[in-house]
Amino acid sequence: MDAVLWIVLGVLLAVAEVFTTTLFLIMFAAGAFAAAGAAALGAPTLVQALVFAVVSALTLTVVRPVIKRHRRSALESGERPFGVEAIEGATALVLELVDAERGLVKIDGELWTARSYDATQSFDPGRRVRVIKVRGATALVWQDDDVTSGELPEAGG
Q: Where does the sequence pass through the membrane (predicted)?
């Protein structure tokens, strides 16, 4: 029965990692799966907890830094960015007033909810802005000096 509890904990931690993508919770999931293995072999609860703690600590201190070092963004590796990386830095057309509370922009033909990156700024419809960051399904935008109202900057300039 202990093994099932450890497996459930490991699965919950792995699912939570999908939503955080920090490579933190997955290390504890590995510890939980190791403890499940110990439980399946008949180890007492104290040994299971010790296995969980040791494996989690080892993966956090040894494996996580190696994975983070090898995980590079598409921009760093010279590959063509996709997903959120492709949107960050892109130019957007304001369709509905964008301020700190609400807004709507068009990025590469797609509609995105938007908020002003600087809460003191607002952008009127028709204005071109730069996507600074994407949080969930919301683009945080900023008036870029290279982006003028109604015109995109020239390539290379």
A: 44-63
> From the CB of residue 130, how many other CB atoms can be counted at a distance below 10 Å?
20
DSSP state of 60: I
Identify the H or E element spanning 38: helix 25-40
Q: What is the pLDDT of residues 53-75, one digit of tens each?
A: 999 999 989 987 887 776 655 44
CB 129 within 8 A of CB 123: yes
Listed residue (94, 126, 127, 128) closest to 113, CA to CA: 94
Residue 139 token pair? 């683009």
Give the whole-angstrom CA distance, residue 50 versus residue 69: 28
Condensed to tens digits (0 to 9), the pLDDT of residues 2-41 reads: 999 999 999 999 999 888 877 889 999 999 999 999 999 9
Q: Across the chain, where does the E strand assignment appear?
A: 91-96, 104-107, 110-116, 128-135, 138-142
- Alpha-carbon gap, residue 103 to 113, rounded angstroms: 6
